[in-house]
């Protein structure tokens, strides 16, 4: 006998606003029954002397420490701008890019 009845599946389907046929109700009752039995078996395996954990081994911080490091200056960053018509594509201390929306500046 499945752990969940056909009527319970029909009730869940109504709550979820899912229209299931009679064949689907029978099919899903069997499938959900197998799932519930599997979950119950997992619950039986857990021993009382073993605390629940999210990982089988203790975790340590695997990230590097946050350390302040100097970044690029504006001039250093803009030195990598592409060259267009023999000049770097820089305008007002920013990268110059082609207009894409056709709006007036």
From TrEMBL:
Catalysed conversion reaction: L-glutamyl-tRNA(Gln) + L-glutamine + ATP + H2O = L-glutaminyl-tRNA(Gln) + L-glutamate + ADP + phosphate + H(+); L-aspartyl-tRNA(Asn) + L-glutamine + ATP + H2O = L-asparaginyl-tRNA(Asn) + L-glutamate + ADP + phosphate + 2 H(+)
GO BP terms in the entry: glutaminyl-tRNAGln biosynthesis via transamidation; regulation of translational fidelity; translation
Gene3D superfamilies: Glu-tRNAGln amidotransferase C subunit, N-terminal domain
Highest rank taxon of the organism: Bacteria
ATP-binding keyword on record: yes
This protein's UniProt keywords: ATP-binding, Ligase, Nucleotide-binding, Protein biosynthesis, Transferase
Classification via InterPro entries: Asp/Glu-ADT_sf_sub_c, GatC
Pfam family, one: GatC
EC number from the UniProt entry: 6.3.5.-
Gene Ontology MF term list: asparaginyl-tRNA synthase (glutamine-hydrolyzing) activity; ATP binding; glutaminyl-tRNA synthase (glutamine-hydrolyzing) activity; transferase activity
Family that this chain belongs to: Belongs to the GatC family.
Subunit field text: Heterotrimer of A, B and C subunits.
Function: Allows the formation of correctly charged Asn-tRNA(Asn) or Gln-tRNA(Gln) through the transamidation of misacylated Asp-tRNA(Asn) or Glu-tRNA(Gln) in organisms which lack either or both of asparaginyl-tRNA or glutaminyl-tRNA synthetases. The reaction takes place in the presence of glutamine and ATP through an activated phospho-Asp-tRNA(Asn) or phospho-Glu-tRNA(Gln).
HAMAP family assigned to the protein according to its UniProt record, in alphabetical order: GatC
Protein name per Swiss-Prot or TrEMBL: Aspartyl/glutamyl-tRNA(Asn/Gln) amidotransferase subunit C
Originating organism: Actinopolymorpha singaporensis
Gene transcribed to yield this protein: gatC
């Amino acid at each position: 006998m499945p752990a969940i009845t056909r009527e319970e599946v029909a009730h869940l389907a109504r709550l979820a606003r899912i229209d299931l046929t009679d064949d689907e109700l029978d099919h899903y009752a069997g499938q959900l029954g197998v799932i519930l039995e599997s979950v119950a078996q997992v619950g039986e395996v857990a021993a009382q002397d073993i605390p629940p954990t999210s990982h089988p081994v203790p975790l340590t911080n695997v990230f590097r420490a946050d350390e302040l490091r100097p970044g690029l200056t504006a001039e250093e960053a803009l030195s990598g701008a592409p060259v267009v018509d023999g000049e770097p594509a820089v305008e007002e201390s920013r990268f110059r890019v082609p207009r894409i929306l056709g709006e007036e500046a």
